[in-house]
Each structure stands twice: as C-alpha cells, then as structure tokens.
Amino acid sequence: MGGADSFNGGRKLRPLSTRIYSCPTSAANTNFDHRFNMAEQNKRELMMLNSETQHPPVMVSSRWNPTPDHLKALEEIYQQGTRTPSADHMKQITAQLRRYGKIEAKNVFYWLKFQNTKPVNARNGDDRW
Questions:
Q1: Of 10, 17, 103, nearest in space to 92 by CA
Q2: pLDDT tens, 40-93?
Q3: What range defines the domain where residue 116 resides?
Q4: What pTM did the predictor assign?
Q5: 107 neighbors 93 (Cβ within 8 angstroms)
Q6: Per residue, what are the HEC states of 9-32?
Q7: Residue 75 lies in a domain
Q8: Inter-residue contact 96 to 103 (CB < 8 Å)
Q9: Which among 33, 57, 81 is the end of a domain?
Q10: Dist CA 114 CA 119 (whole Å)
Q11: Do 83 and 113 sit in the same domain of this protein?
C-alpha cells in the first residue's frame, strides 16, 4: 500500500463539495437587511443635516470682487494712460495688485477694457455707465 493513499490507511477520500442550504427565513433576512441599510442611511443623512446647521456651507463665488485698494491702483494705472497693456505688462500689474487680495491677469484686462468702453458708450448716448 504505497503511494498517495498510504497516509490515510488506503481509504479513498470523497471530493469536497459545497453544500447549499435553503433557509426558510431568507426573505425575512432580506427585509431585515434592507431595513438595517435604510436605518443606517437615515442616520448618515441626519448627521449631515445636523452638521450643516452647525456649519452652514460657505458660498464661493467665481466672480472677481475687487477690493478698494485694487480699484484705487487700477484707476491710477488707467489715469497714467495704460489702456491695453501687453501680456507681460499685465502680469507685472497683476503681481503688484496681489498684495491687496486675489486677482488674476484677466481681471486686470477686463477692468481696463471696461474703462475703455465707458467713454465710447457715453458718446453714443448710452447712459447705463
């Protein structure tokens, strides 16, 4: 009796197979799982609502809001004759204005462009400005 079967006395072993048991309460377990999941979801939503009341969401605007210092500096630049600065000059202006708060080169560009349209609109009788 040598070989692979010698360790168990020569008996042949059955192959292992998984057994599937049907549970008469499987429908009840499914309902319980669903109720448990819903309770957990409701608890998370309630916690989120409570945290929002304690810490209201911060409104963030994508629109640039110039500070009084920004406006003063931009008006000085405009009074000095700068109307359509080059890209490099606009970057320099923007770098200087950053000390007064958040600003981008496009803000400088559009502010100066808007100032240029005011006299044109006034000449054309448009008094919205």
A1: 103
A2: 776 777 776 666 555 666 677 789 999 999 999 999 999 999 989 999 999 999
A3: 68-122
A4: 0.48
A5: no
A6: CCCCCCCCCCCCCCCCCHHHHHHH
A7: yes
A8: no
A9: 57
A10: 10
A11: yes
